[in-house]
Amino acid sequence: MELPRGVEHSWEMFNILIRPPWFLPEKTAINESAFLRRREFLSALGLGGAGLAAAGVMDVLGAEEAGKESTVAAKSRPLYPAPRNPRYNPGWTLTDENVAARYNNFYEFSMVKNQVHQLTGKFVIDPWKIEISGLVEKPFEIDAHELIREMPLEDRVYRFRCVEAWSMVVPWTGFQLSKLIEKAKPKAEAKFVRFETFNRPDQAPGMKGSNYPFPYFEGLRMDEAMHPLTLIATGIFGKPMPKQHGAPVRLIVPWKYGYKSIKSIVKIEFLANQPKTFWEVLAADEYPFESNVNPSIPHPRWLQSTERVIDTGDRIRTLPYNGYGDQVAKLYSKV
Ligand code: MTE
User: Which one of 17, 105, 198 would you pick to mutate in the ligand 1 pocket, going by the greatest count of ligand atoms within 8 A of its CB?
Assistant: First the structure.
């Protein structure tokens, strides 16, 4: 397969781009006994179980610098859990919180899902500037934590389907992206929204020496961005967002493959033309701009007709638009 110029073949590339991503080498499997020893150590300090949960913004697992996050936790804790929006709480069985917290795609930290949560210790999420710019009447900059306190937060249970054919059902906390967009007053020419993640190789070990085109960037059409299902998520499982899930704020677009849901956003820009996206630059035939979940279009290297639920291992049928067709199919009907 042909890779973009400047991108070299490496074992990781081979894993991610040539082989299905779940074929990870044996040596990358989680070291369960080290994990359990850590839990014992934390509980001896009185920080296990409920103590960990109460710490809120601290990573569910593996917060090496918990002390440094205490001001963030203190500021955010009263906001969680946010009220559940009954419209988006269909009574589905939730994925186990701890399984979700150590099965992450966050390439800035690691390409190995169960290592991401262990490598976020140096990642500073407070203060956190977000720039809103481009084709808007009111460009502005705001600290993410101020924004989180300003916006009306709610809890929504969503299905989440990765292009790698795994899935989960989790309660996100957040607010509709449309509410933030309205504050910026986009101009009529603004037809697309581009999102960008931080660029800090000193805090994110996966960025150092990587051939990937970091910082990670994504995009949506304006009507997709304005859709009521599209969230800026600030938390998960009733707590502030753990670093490995994309603290302090990330995007959630539940009818698209998971890579569209960009983490740890620093910039939201309004554009007239369709922007390139991170994965599109790497392999446009595998990860196109639109990327709606579609069980009838296989990925070039694997089927998309079913998905594996990450905590139970059950294999279930994938639904068109990830089950949100009644709400979003009309965005794509050509009349
Ligand atoms: N955002 C950034 N900045 N970097 C990433 O590597 N991975 C994407 C998406 N957002 C990614 C990202 C992919 S491929 C998926 S499936 C989801 O995040 C995973 O989200 P989760 O780890 O919270 O389950």
Answer: 105
